[in-house]
Design goal:
single chain, 201 residues, alpha+beta
Length: 201
């Protein structure tokens, strides 16, 4: 069972990497706020770390599909996710709604910087990593169908086929702290003002 599960996981990662395609060109690494907005918009998913109840407060990661807009051409910088109340994340958010979203160019891009080889590697700073810490707000039940259709289903159409007997909800990330690593020299802090004023194009 372990081998088959691992094989399915590896196939999933391969599909995610091979199917990634850019919407807009990669910004210059020096334009930190713009790069951050670009990576959020380009990403189909993020790894979300929450403080877990079932592990006594230890960080626990969740891979969630993401969207920051209602269409490819637009970008709001405001991240939406879709998850069910049977996921441990739901219980964790009742305890502590502060989470960190990790957006990674590796897996969301086919850039040479993110391909393991003699020159580069996904861990290389040139393969960008953005961490956004903030509160993951669960939107009211009456807003969920509208927001899901507007911000998520167009980009992740399979969501519409997920089991109806699960209580699906839309989460909205309210950023507080942003750190971007897209070049050598350590991560750069991005102010909220710069982030919101930047464009993803």
């Amino acid at each position: 069972i372990f081998f088959s599960d691992m094989l399915r996981f590896l196939v999933l990662i391969f599909v995610l990497v091979s199917s990634a395609a850019r919407i807009y060109p990669r910004p210059p690494w020096k334009e930190k706020a713009r790069f951050a907005r670009w990576l959020v918009h380009e990403s189909d998913f993020a790894v979300v770390a929450a403080q877990s109840q079932h592990l006594g407060g230890a960080p626990f990661p969740h891979l969630l599909s993401t969207s920051d807009s209602a269409e490819l051409k637009g970008c709001t910088g405001l991240v939406y996710v879709y998850f069910a109340n049977i996921m441990s994340l739901y219980a964790d958010l009742q305890w502590n709604s502060t989470v960190t979203f990790g957006f990674f160019e590796a897996g969301n891009s086919t850039d040479k910087f993110c391909t393991a080889g003699p020159e580069y590697d996904p861990e290389d700073p040139n393969c960008a990593k953005l961490h956004v810490t903030g509160d993951l707000e669960i939107v009211p039940d009456d807003e969920t169908p509208v927001l899901a259709r507007r911000f998520l289903f167009w980009r992740h159409p399979a969501m519409q086929t997920w089991p109806k007997n699960h209580k699906w909800m839309v989460g909205r990330l309210k950023p507080k702290v942003l750190d971007l690593l897209d070049f050598y020299g350590g991560a750069a802090h991005i102010s909220l003002e710069d982030y919101w004023n930047a464009d993803c194009h």
